């Protein structure tokens, strides 16, 4: 039985290249493609792949939030993150979201295939440079980030991301089928929990954590 994969990346040419590289391995079959996090979630629910290979910085919904959502709803699906970002915030965020592997886009073809086979067999995989980054983060206390974001409830995280993307309080209420007053209460709780003052701080915080992109 082949390893069934969905590939998510917002750059079509790169995505097509990945598909060709993956399918050069006779044990792998790419069964779907997605151009953003929301599309990736839909494809995973529809096609039930063994693995989602995903970028992090994508429009609509990023790979970090998509990973967090899928690991909660479909924990059996393995997630391989393939990103250009080696920043500690992206690595830490993806690991906390539940990713099973993290590689940089400058990895070799062989490393990518090793990662796929490793997570399919129930193992974790970090490329060498990412492993060094994680180890240095643990050893150097000054690099440890106070992650208050993890303390937010799922609803608060949902509203936080919408606020960070510039969605108005009224629009958030309509989108989530809750009152403007309820949105305001959640927003106030978010600001207090994260020690932020206003929407501008929310955007800066989200950018720093890699939850949104410019």
What does the secondary structure layout of this molecule look like, with pairings?
Elements: E1 3-8, H1 12-22, E2 28-34, H2 37-47, E3 51-54, H3 63-73, E4 78-83, H4 88-97, E5 101-104, H5 109-120, E6 125-126, H6 128-139, H7 154-164, H8 169-176, H9 180-194, H10 199-209
Parallel strand pairs: 1-2, 1-3, 3-4, 4-5, 5-6
Produce a short descriptive summary:
It contains 10 helices and 6 strands; from the N terminus they run βαβαβαβαβαβααααα. Mean pLDDT is 89; it is low at 141-145. It is an alpha/beta fold and 214 residues long.
Strand order of the largest sheet: 2-1-3-4-5-6
Unreliable sequence segments: 141-145
Kindly report how far apart the N and C termini lie: 41 Å
CATH class category of the largest domain = Alpha Beta
| Cα radius of gyration in angstroms | 18 Å
* Count of β-strands: 6
CATH superfamily (homologous) name of the largest domain: Response regulator
Structure commentary:
The chain has 214 residues and is of the alpha/beta class. It folds into 2 domains: 3-139, Rossmann fold; 148-209, Winged helix-like DNA-binding domain superfamily/Winged helix DNA-binding domain (Arc Repressor Mutant, subunit A). Helix content is 52%, strand content 14%. It is built from 10 helices and 6 strands, in the order βαβαβαβαβαβααααα. It has a 6-stranded parallel beta sheet, with helices on both faces. The longest helix is centred in the C-terminal third of the chain and has 15 residues, at 180-194. Mean pLDDT is 89; it is low at 141-145.
């Amino acid at each position: 039985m082949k390893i069934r994969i969905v590939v998510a990346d917002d750059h079509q040419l790169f995505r097509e290249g990945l598909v060709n590289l993956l399918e050069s391995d006779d044990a792998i079959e790419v069964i779907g493609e997605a151009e953003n996090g929301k599309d990736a979630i839909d494809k995973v629910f529809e096609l039930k792949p063994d693995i989602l290979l995903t970028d992090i910085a994508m429009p609509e919904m990023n790979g970090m939030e998509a990973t967090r959502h899928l690991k909660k709803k479909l924990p059996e699906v393995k997630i391989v993150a393939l990103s250009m970002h080696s920043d500690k915030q992206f690595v830490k965020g993806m690991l906390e979201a539940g990713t099973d592997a993290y590689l940089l886009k400058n990895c070799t073809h062989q490393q990518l295939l090793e990662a796929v086979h490793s997570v399919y067999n129930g193992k974790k995989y970090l490329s060498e440079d990412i492993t060094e980054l994680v180890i240095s983060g643990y050893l150097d206390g000054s690099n440890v980030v106070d992650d208050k974001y993890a303390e937010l409830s799922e609803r608060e995280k949902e509203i936080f991301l919408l606020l960070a993307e510039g969605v108005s309080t009224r629009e958030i209420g309509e989108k989530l089928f809750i009152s403007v007053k309820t949105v305001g209460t959640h927003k106030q709780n978010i600001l207090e929990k994260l020690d932020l003052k206003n929407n501008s701080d929310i955007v800066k915080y989200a950018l720093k954590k890699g939850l949104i992109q410019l």
